[in-house]
Design a protein that fits this description.
Helices cover 28% and strands 32% of the residues. It is built from eleven helices and 22 strands. The protein has helices at 31-34, 91-94, 127-138, 148-153, 158-168, 182-190, 208-216, 244-254, 275-282, 297-306, 315-320, and strands at 2-5, 11-13, 17-20, 23-26, 44-48, 52-57, 68-69, 75-77, 81-83, 86-88, 98-106, 109-114, 117-126, 143-147, 173-176, 195-198, 220-227, 230-233, 238-239, 258-263, 287-291, 310-313. The chain starts with a strand and ends with a helix. Pfam families: His_biosynth (PF00977).
């Protein structure tokens, strides 16, 4: 196995011959087409040799079909992919979008805002209790934590991470909101975060993004939050002056593997994702995690079709939990 990237944040390249439903798939170059035809088993994980974990996928159909290797000792197990100390996935090859639950934090509570407006709070819940409910309902591979207060005030609060860690167990945490320096980012990784989303600071200077890449590598996800056609910063209260395409160009130049793109006017509205925006971003070749307005698995399927790697669900999940 080797990590080839292919613009998808380090997706694994499978180099052996694979027997899939009695059809041979030779070498990694054929895995792209495999995305449209192979259905793997529910919560599957491919493991190489002595159960060294190298890939993951998830089938919405929950079928029991498996992939058998004819040249390596690969087996199907559970799902979760660890490589170079970061979490990634094989959605780019197997056509499965990673659904990531979101927990937004304002003050001491979990909240949801409508369109990022701090004066339009849809609900408040005790943070630890809400995280426990989300994890019990979803058993996710990754939990997205946003310190809204940190994003607005310019300083991520370390206690937000520690409080979530106290109840999240082994679930990897992706955190964002007010991460302004590579040193802060490094400290959060050392404190146990798995992935970090950086927005405002990544666009502060032309060199800023490169410095974050040098400091935390593939753990970096750049936030491209689109408001009124431009990338918003500082908790969506200011503008970078960049179009989404210009922002992605900076990301690619700096070596960023993944972006977290939010259509601000859809966020918290249950209005459906901005497919036009995400389609444009996916054509650039960078891995795209979409957020804003995602309502259900039909929306997730639509995001899969246009090439998104992941989809974040916040308000829809809260409704499913009966919060409001």
């Amino acid at each position: 196995m080797r990590d080839t990237g292919h613009g998808r944040g380090g997706c694994a390249s499978l180099t052996g011959d694979f027997l899939v439903r009695d059809t041979f798939i030779d070498e990694a170059r054929h895995l792209e087409s495999l995305a449209h035809s192979v259905k793997l088993g529910h919560r599957a994980k491919i493991a190489e040799n002595a159960l060294h974990l190298i890939g993951s996928t998830h089938s919405a159909q929950c079928l029991s079909k498996v992939v058998k290797s004819t040249g390596r000792q690969a087996v199907v197990c559970r799902r979760r992919y660890f490589a170079a100390g970061h979490i990634t996935m094989l959605a780019c090859y197997y056509g499965r979008v990673q659904v990531i639950p979101a927990v937004d934090v304002l003050g001491d509570d979990a909240v949801r805002l409508e369109r990022g407006d701090y004066d339009r709070v849809l609900f408040r819940q005790p943070l630890e209790a809400y995280v426990e409910r989300v994890l019990a309902a979803t058993t996710p591979d990754l939990l997205h934590i946003v310190d809204l207060q940190g994003a607005r005030d310019g300083a991520f609060r370390p206690e937000v991470l520690s409080r979530c860690q106290n109840v999240s167990g082994a679930t990897p945490l992706q955190v964002s909101g007010g991460i302004r320096t590579p040193e802060q980012a490094t400290a959060l990784l050392q404190a146990g975060a798995t992935r970090l989303i950086v927005g405002t600071a990544a666009f502060a200077t032309p060199e800023a993004m490169t410095k974050f890449v040098e400091a935390i590598g593939f753990a970096l996800v750049v936030a491209i939050d689109v408001k009124d056609g431009l990338v918003a910063t500082k908790g969506w209260l200011a503008s970078s002056g960049l179009t989404p395409e210009e922002a992605v160009e900076r990301c690619l130049h700096a070596g960023v593997a993944r972006i977290h793109a939010t259509a601000v006017d859809r966020d918290g509205t249950m209005g459906g994702p901005d497919l036009s925006l995400y389609r444009r971003l996916c054509t650039t070749g960078i891995a795209v995690v979409a957020a804003g307005g995602v309502r259900d698995m039909n929306d997730v399927a639509a995001l899969e079709t246009i090439g998104c790697e992941g989809a974040v669900m916040g308000t829809a999940l809260a409704q499913q939990l009966g919060i409001f």
